[in-house]
Design a protein that fits this description.
The chain has 374 residues and is of the alpha/beta class. Helix content is 31%, strand content 24%.
Length: 374
């Protein structure tokens, strides 16, 4: 089966460097041709795929009108990798936040959201700055005299993931859409500032009820009102760029339970990723057998590749550093269409979710780029 390649679209990792270039930050290039501004905000709506916005444009008329194009988010198409792309200006092959769960050599499989070992939830003594040591976009902005602000949920202010990918910014914790809008507009009052704002509830409802469900649509309408509120209050000379970290697909009955499928466990010492993309870490000398077993068992339902094949296809960006390379599976399996690779024993919560993401399909990869100018 021919592997898909990820190219031809602007990348999510280009957004913040393009914004910072308009603010005069050295070393940043405006590859997305964003408008010049005195201050700018990137608002990330977790889980809003470009296809979902197109299909529900009537429920989000402001966003639909502001949409100027689409971006590719890269592999894996997960929140962890997306936030790291925003926070470093790099794809996963360099920033190394390789998914919802991934192996850190010598430490085991890390759940990057809980910062615990997966799946047993044991505590891990991992310094976020060692897991992601590269300078963040917020640090680069601050060093250039730009006021960098993060507007996101208060409960994440001191999380290890925040320290890994958002350090250097002034963190303003928020609780609901009202203070997301208010704090974003406050940040844009700066004479030379960069603001990153985050809204995550659309993704939560998509996971629970499915993208396009009644609950999801109602939340999309509220998201559109959030965007409208910020646009209405934009000071002159300020720019708002609205993006997302991934799209989403709904799983139905087209799934396999890895934990209950011996052929998918033989020769496997650890598993990472999530139901739409799996990092398969093999026992010594077992890579060929594991690759063959996963290809045979999954068939046309997934793209199954060796790590080096996935790298050559550009799944993890144009460059993959030696530091990051072992975090991707020896074998990588990426689901096609609406297929899911569950682990009902090890991951009962994740396996029960309807909406999923992480793979290479357009529904997951393509996100909107919407622009408003004050």
């Amino acid at each position: 089966m021919e592997l898909p390649t990820l190219s031809g679209e602007g990348h999510l990792a280009e957004v913040v460097p393009s914004v910072l270039a308009t603010l005069g930050v050295p070393g940043c290039v405006n590859t997305l041709d964003l408008p010049e501004s005195a201050a700018a905000c990137v608002l990330l709506i977790d889980g809003l795929g470009a296809g979902l916005l197109r299909d529900h444009a009537g429920d989000a008329p402001v966003l639909a009108e502001l949409a100027k194009g689409t971006l590719t988010v890269g592999c894996p198409s997960t929140t962890v990798a997306g936030l790291a792309a925003i926070g470093t200006g790099l794809a996963s092959g360099e920033h190394g936040m390789a998914g919802y769960t991934f192996e850190v050599p010598g430490c085991g499989v890390l759940n990057a959201l809980t910062w615990r070992r997966h799946p047993d939830r044991a505590e891990l003594d991992l310094d976020p700055r060692e897991v992601q040591p590269l300078p963040t976009t917020f640090e680069r902005a601050t060093a250039a005299g730009v006021e960098a602000v993060v507007v996101a949920e208060a409960k994440f202010a001191k999380s290890p993931l925040t320290k890994a990918v958002q350090r250097g910014g002034i963190y303003r914790g928020v609780h609901a859409m009202g203070d997301v809008a208010a704090e974003t507009l406050r940040a844009l009052e700066s004479s030379r500032g960069f603001c990153y704002s985050y809204h995550g509830q659309l993704d939560e409802l998509g996971h629970r009820y499915g993208p396009g469900s009644a609950a999801w649509v109602m939340q999309l309408r509220q998201v559109d009102r959030l965007v409208e509120s910020i646009v209405d209050g934009l000071p002159a000379g300020r720019v708002l760029a609205v993006v997302a970290d991934h799209g989403m697909v709904a799983l139905a009955g087209n799934v396999i339970d890895i934990d209950a499928t011996p052929a998918l466990r033989s020769g496997v010492r650890a598993l990472g990723g999530d139901p739409r993309v799996r990092h398969v870490y093999t026992e010594a000398g077992a890579e060929d057998d594991v690759l063959a077993a996963w290809r045979s068992t999954l068939g046309e339902r997934a793209w199954v590749a060796r790590r080096d094949e996935a790298i050559a296809a550009g799944w993890f960006g144009p460059r993959v550093s030696d530091r990051v390379r072992p975090r991707f599976g020896d074998v990588v399996a990426a689901a096609r269409e609406d297929f899911g690779m569950l682990r009902r024993t090890a991951e009962p919560v994740e396996s029960a979710l309807i909406g999923q993401h992480g793979s290479l399909t357009p529904a997951e990869q393509l996100v909107p780029l919407a622009i408003a100018i004050g």
